[in-house]
């Protein structure tokens, strides 16, 4: 009987490892990038899934020693604006749980319910040093969590019902990339909404409509929050959002949940900053291709930015001033930045470190580049100290590199997530190994083709 290739791959990623390692592990002799400093010939000690010490001291007695001499040790990297664990093949609907277009489920769409810990994309991302990810719903104009769906696939207001699917794309979650059935770290960490050209398309065709729709939506949310009893007895005027969406937006309206706003044009960024101040909304800018033009205003508003530093082609009117020095300009102004991967940070999430290296080659300091893929993402999403740094109390997410992690030829030689060393196999390496010898049967055909 023929066996499918997928069976062998799944077996290689069999879930059964404990969620947290209890043994003490000491990584010694490496050049340690803590996320905020550099320690030569350092020692990183983990126990119970957490880092217990980082310094130059000797390994504790009884610890498992991992020799990193001549290598670099870093925190696990964080993929932001990612679709990891929610989309296998974006063009195959049944394997893509990252997007939603229902009339009555927009802001309430929660990507955490579609997470797949067996996803083939997770081991590939781990090979690039990714140990955590901020998973966002796909949405019009998205440059990170965006999948292959065309923006026209997302209907606008009035196309099948008021706010269909609505200005809000849904809620983001944080995951870890370690083996195990429970990869969700924290659900509902941010709301997502497109502005700029994409937001205009959803709202009816003009940027002004986007802002009006946003303000009206928050007004409805606040009205609902004050009058839930009246809503229950049908004593409140008709609202354009479903109850589920109204409930999901209450934390945004109250300033407790940040709003990830996809926006690129400098003029749009200024309008969004003003809107956030007027409405009391906590903002995270996504994209900000022209952010360097208004970097001082972004910094003054204390708004962080998720960006792809190699986005330098003016492929639309809202990205006319895109340039490779965007990350450096924002960082110099004091903006907290997080650097994204490519292609939706799913299959190409491992390229996050390459983008950070490109940013360094265009003026961003090395220390800022490392922070932009480790400590800054954790800080932006309210998890500072929990991951993204080699510091006592942080998660035991540690990567050992053959050389500088921002150099493309360097490879990860070991990856720990929550203190557990992860396998370095992927479906791709298994397939390569399986077929490179030409098969194992007398016929020369691979085993899978036997009877």
UniProtKB/TrEMBL annotation:
<dbReference type="InterPro" id="IPR006680">
    <property type="entry name" value="Amidohydro-rel"/>
</dbReference>
<protein>
    <submittedName>
        <fullName>Imidazolonepropionase-like amidohydrolase</fullName>
    </submittedName>
</protein>
<dbReference type="Pfam" id="PF01979">
    <property type="entry name" value="Amidohydro_1"/>
</dbReference>
<feature type="signal peptide">
    <location>
        <begin position="1"/>
        <end position="21"/>
    </location>
</feature>
<dbReference type="InterPro" id="IPR032466">
    <property type="entry name" value="Metal_Hydrolase"/>
</dbReference>
<keyword id="KW-0378">Hydrolase</keyword>
<feature type="domain" description="Amidohydrolase-related">
    <location>
        <begin position="312"/>
        <end position="411"/>
    </location>
</feature>
<dbReference type="InterPro" id="IPR011059">
    <property type="entry name" value="Metal-dep_hydrolase_composite"/>
</dbReference>
<dbReference type="GO" id="GO:0016810">
    <property type="term" value="F:hydrolase activity, acting on carbon-nitrogen (but not peptide) bonds"/>
</dbReference>
<dbReference type="InterPro" id="IPR051781">
    <property type="entry name" value="Metallo-dep_Hydrolase"/>
</dbReference>
<keyword id="KW-0732">Signal</keyword>
